[in-house]
Specification:
By secondary structure, the protein is α+β, with helices and mostly antiparallel strands. The chain is built from five helices and nine strands. Strands 1, 2, 3, 4, 5, 6, 7, 8 and 9 form a nine-stranded mixed beta sheet that branches. Strand 6 and strand 7 form a beta hairpin.
Length: 232
Amino acid sequence: MTSRSTFGRRLLRTGLVAGLALGLAACASSFKADVSRFQTQLPAPQGQTFAVVADDPALAGGLEFALYADLVAAEMAELGYVASASPEAASLLVRFDYSVDNGRERIRSTHLGSGFGHFGSFGRFGGFGRFGRFRGFSARRSFAFGFYDPWLAGPDVRSFTVYTSEIDLKIDNTATGERLFEGQAQAASRSNRLQSLVPNLVDAIFTDFPGNSGEVLRITIREDGKSVKPAN
């Protein structure tokens, strides 16, 4: 890998991450992914060569796949592995796949209004106005005491779509065919734009790579850094 190609990949990565920030700014201030990884004997970088290939044959040769494969290759190179001229010549075969589902509709209900804010206004419903000690109760507190009525409080119901995106990464020893590493990163978001999602999923799966085998982590990526903790 030449220094020029490495620089180009870093520019590509920077541009895609910047696109993520623009695309998701209105939806979330951080990107959260659940990452699971399994490994047997993934060798420490000592000059081994690698090639990134599509795990799904339908993606092979596609320009979009090549874009994301460059991100994976950049991460492998940063770890110390060396890009191979061809998959046949590589000592490590990195199988990569990505997807996003069709989404699921979610409904959020927020009860607004001041119907129970001042009970004195409900005199026509039974003289609540004479119970001055109840004045100032919020709708939430009224609901807790069994007084809530959605017709009076005015529910605000909103629907939105949540998409689940995923990447899968597998590393094989090309000489023996042995599987050395398997990893998966998943995220739920309001966006289904792979151009925005895949760069962060790749970033997440390579965080503290290769990790502890069998461990599932929640990785949060923000502009000011990343945090890692066990997934719930």
